[in-house]
Write a structure and sequence with these properties.
Layout (H helix, E strand, L loop, with lengths): L1 E10 L2 E11 L4 E5 L6 H8 L7 E6 L2 E2 L5 H6 L1 E5 L10 H11 L4 H14 L16 H13 L5 E5 L7 H18 L2 E6 L2 H7 L2 E6 L2 E6 L1 H6 L4 H8 L2 H8 L2 H4 L20 H5 L4 H16 L1 H11 L1
Parallel strand pairs: 3-8, 3-9, 6-7, 7-8
Antiparallel strand pairs: 1-2, 1-4, 4-5, 9-10
Helix pairs in contact: 3-4, 3-5, 4-5, 5-6, 7-10
The structure holds adenosine-5'-triphosphate.
Family: Belongs to the ABC transporter superfamily.
Protein name: ABC transporter ATP-binding protein
GO molecular function: ATP binding
Length: 310
């Protein structure tokens, strides 16, 4: 659990982060989203103390982080970054073992940890002896996530984690990550420029502009109940695509019985309409066309339902 209370930072009397407050519980993903220069990276760097805040408090597991040395603080945090940052001359096993070794774990404990993390990330144990360049970009990113988790941190910071991947791998990894969230069970703060990624991955989105929170809430809250003009306009360009990512099969179930549809077995009720559209075989396409029609027929009612539930 991390709690950020009223943090501020100015450069030459110009505030770049103003009175920022939020909390993230274990198992929850908070996305920091906003235009370039809105203060996302500064916020992340304040949390890991690469930048000193001017005022405010940050608590990790109820501990005031000002009372920790930067070394103690960073042991509580795992990082996943865009460029992945795996050491090229180390094997995958050595890369994942770095933090546990620094923590002085014994060999058996480290080996067990590496094995269980690889399993969690759906990577075969044969990758252990390989070097990073012998893995695909997506596999390397999964190793990056495994490495961030290795020392058992309380908090994971992810800075544009899927930014360097091609669109297909990126989408696949986002989907996998979504499924992994429960198993990871850490407080996760993720910075992204990508509005769709924020909608897909965020349990909550913190939308920033000029260092100030414009709105913080679930993707549906931001989309269907924008707090101000900025929020509304920020999402307006991709409105339809975002809606299809935010609305789930479950949301439609008040209007139709999904049993009549021949949906693929692996599709969960929490699947968004956008996920449904990714199944492209002809029979499924016809089904989804009907689903979409139902959605658009009931769109106004659904949206007012979302607004009421906010
Ligand atoms: N060392 C610095 N000195 C002065 N101004 C700075 C410094 N570092 C950042 N800034 C300013 O602070 C503001 C916030 O920057 P920050 O990097 O946090 O934005 P961001 O939302 O992460 O942007 P991007 O999406 O482009 O990475 C920007 O206006 C930037 O120019």
């Amino acid at each position: 659990m991390i709690e950020v209370r009223n943090i501020t930072k100015s450069y030459h009397s110009t505030p770049v982060v103003s009175n920022l407050s939020f909390s993230v519980a274990p198992g929850e993903v908070l996305v920091l989203l906003g235009p370039s220069g809105s203060g996302k990276t500064t916020t992340l760097k304040i949390i890991n103390r690469l930048i000193e805040k001017d005022s405010g408090k940050i608590f990790i597991e109820s501990e005031d982080t000002d009372k920790l040395t930067p070394y103690e603080l960073r042991r509580k945090i795992g990082y996943v970054i865009q460029s992945i940052g795996l050491f090229p001359h180390y094997t995958i096993e050595q890369n994942i073992s770095i933090v546990p070794e620094l923590l002085g774990w014994n060999k058996t404990r480290i080996q067990n940890r590496v094995d269980s993390l690889l399993e969690m990330m759906n990577l075969p144990s044969s990758v252990k002896s390989r070097k990073p360049h012998e893995l695909s970009g997506g596999q390397q990113q999964r190793v990056g996530i495994a490495r961030a988790l290795a020392g058992g941190p309380s908090l994971i910071l992810m800075d544009e984690p899927f930014g360097a991947l091609d669109p297909i791998t990126r989408q696949e990894l986002q989907k996998e990550f979504k499924q992994l969230e429960g198993a990871i069970n850490k407080a996760i703060i993720l910075v992204t420029h990508d509005i769709i990624e924020a909608m897909v991955l965020g349990d909550k989105i913190c939308l920033l502009d000029e260092g100030k929170i414009q709105q913080i809430g679930t993707p549906k809250e931001l989309l269907f109940q924008p707090a101000n003009k900025f929020v509304k306009e920020f999402f307006s360009q991709h409105k339809l695509q975002l809606e299809l990512n935010a609305v789930t099969l479950q949301d439609l179930s008040g209007f139709i019985s999904l049993e009549g549809f021949d949906l693929p077995a692996d599709l969960q009720p929490e699947a968004s309409l956008a996920e449904c559209l990714m199944y492209t075989d002809k029979k499924a396409s016809l089904q989804y066309n009907s689903l979409l029609k139902i959605y658009f027929n009931h769109r106004e009612v659904l949206i007012s339902k979302f607004k009421e539930s906010v």
